[in-house]
Input
Amino acid sequence: MLTMRAIGRMGRFGNQIFQYAFLKICARASNAEVQTDPWVGQALFGHADPPVSTTLMPLVEIGSNMGSLLEVVPEFVPYIEKSSGRKPGQIGVGAMTDGTQSGEIVGLFQWHSSAYRPHQAYFRSLFQPCEDLRPWLDEPINEMRKRGKTIVTLHLRTGDYKWLPQFSWTLMPPMQWWADWLASIWNDLDEPVLYLCSNDVSAVRHYFKQFNPFTNDDFPARPPERLKGVPVGFYRDFYLMTQSDVLAASNSTFSFAAAMLNERATKFVRPTWDFDSKFAEFDPWDSDPLQFLSGGDRLTLKGYRRMLSLAREMEGWKGAVSSALLYHPGGLAIVLKLRLQFAWAGWGWKGVRSVLLGRRLKP
Output
């Protein structure tokens, strides 16, 4: 038996793709039954795994991404041990091939994507949309293919990354850099059509007006009635990224996971920490899902001075000042809130007091 309660709670949709894929691949290697808590993939992909009905020994991921999380939120593993009443075991990338013991799988599982390559066909089969979604999903694609031959999709990550400037994976280049890159390749493409994916299209669309971009707002079809009240609006953007001919991804698991599911594109591009080149092509099945500023060391934080220097290089002095006085304090508050949530859930006021006093919590 392999269970996963954390799906839907540790990150958003891109994270959930990696979590569910790892769970199912391990289950196949282990000849194990799978149980999960409810998550949006059940509505989108028709998965019908039964709900978690038992408490098993936690199996916590061994990996650098998970190490980064534990560095930021040291209360996480003690909380897992306390809530389960069992000392956590460990699980690594080898479990996808060799199988594993029964347990509650916990982690991010965002390893170098070459680890998933031997399971590519199965990985992709897990995330095929239900048939009743097709009219909603296909409308933008069909309409854009009437207007051109090459669908170019840009995923523009905004919002939350701005509020976490101190972390080594929050790479959010200025919109003008994207527009300049697009202009550099536009005339070499065969009748290109641009589609913008963003959590705030109204804030970014005007940067690309010369390309007459489309967004989800330009297409009136709605999801099936059975999904009324289910937050699936983001999925049309995700699906369109899986069907594009050129995909420009953010430094984000959302667009990286879409790139792994894309069997059509001839070019995958994303921003790089090398600001001389700004953007680089990548292979979705032979790359790190997230690019960390510190390279192989994958330190969680940029360091205060480096954070300000990068902000100034990308957005000028206004960006540096905003990072110092607004976004960096906001990011610290976000992390503190997360730590306090785990402390409260596991230890109540005693846990909250310990976090505020800098004391280590024990199960």
Remarks:
- The chain is about 40% helix and 10% strand.
- The chain has a mean pLDDT of 92.
- The radius of gyration is 21 Å.
